[in-house]
Amino acid sequence: MSDIEHDAPAADPIGDVDPEIITPVADGLADARAAILERIADHVVFDGWSPAAIAAAAAEAGVSAETARLAFPRGVDAAMGFHLRGDRKLAEALAQEPLGGMGMTDRITRAVRLRLEIAEPDRETVRRAASLFALPVNAGNGAKMVWNTADTIWTALGDGSEDLNWYTKRATLSGVISSVTLYWLGDESEGRADTWAHLDRRIADVMRIEKAKAAVRRNPLGKIAMGGFDRLTRGVRAPRRAGA
Question: Domain named COQ9 C-terminal: which ranges (predicted)?
Fold first, then answer.
């Protein structure tokens, strides 16, 4: 069965992102971060993901300048927090979506589209974040954000893989998310129709690759080759959230 079509009970998710930003509870700054992120989008449009934007949003929220600096020491920290806030909204929205009657491919397509629909009111803010994450010094954090979105989707859709598939599913979906997001940022078509067509094409590309992989596994020589690969990767296990 292909990675993108696999359907299984939910597994414990993991995020390879700074835990203080994902779940900022231990340091007592959760409320301050949430209040700043609620107001920061309009300021980012003018000031970028900068200390000035953080300070302006904090002032609106009644958060002291000192607390704001502790909450988000750098602009990239605020950009990451904003992205993860959108991922949490996505998880909540997917829990309410009537996905039961859809095939897995349609579920994934719907989830990616829903993530962009959540971001639509703040498209310019996302554009600024994309430019920030494109800088070499921030590229690793940008990759983590895309990975977190892919993990959010697979977890919400009930992925239960515990081996190499855990990684390949998220890596494949991360590529789709990155491509579609960049297309969306430049799309001026009515209702973003061109973006949704691009999304459909990317998902179709993935399915063609998965079908080709399945055909290799059915071939006698392919079975031998893939059998060796499977033995090499047999010890690869999905990570688990701390405390799980």
Answer: 141-210
Of 127, 104, 111, nearest in space to 183 by CA: 127
3-state secondary structure 120-152: HHHHHHHHHHHHHHHCHHHHHHHHHHHHHHHHH
Only one residue has tokens 């090499």, namely 232
- Decide if 177 contacts 148 (C-beta within 8 A): no
Backbone phi, then psi, for 38, in 5-degree steps? -65, -25
Q: Which residue has the tokens 């430019």?
A: 131
- Predicted confidence (pLDDT) per residue in 123-159, tens digit: 999 999 999 999 999 999 999 999 999 999 999 999 8
Tokens of 44: 């980012």
Determine the straight-line distance between the first and last CA of the chain, rounded to whole angstroms: 28
156 burial (CB, 10 Å; 0-12 / 13-18 / 19+) is: buried
Q: What Rg value do the Cα atoms of the chain yield, rounded?
A: 20
Distances (CA, A) of 126 to 18, 41, 109: 20, 9, 20
Please give the domain boundaries of the chain with CATH numbers for all domains: 76-232 (1.10.357.10)
Whether the Cβ atoms of residue 79 and residue 127 lie closer than 8 Å to each other: no
Q: What is the pLDDT of residues 63-104, one digit of tens each?
A: 999 999 999 999 999 999 999 999 999 999 999 999 988 998
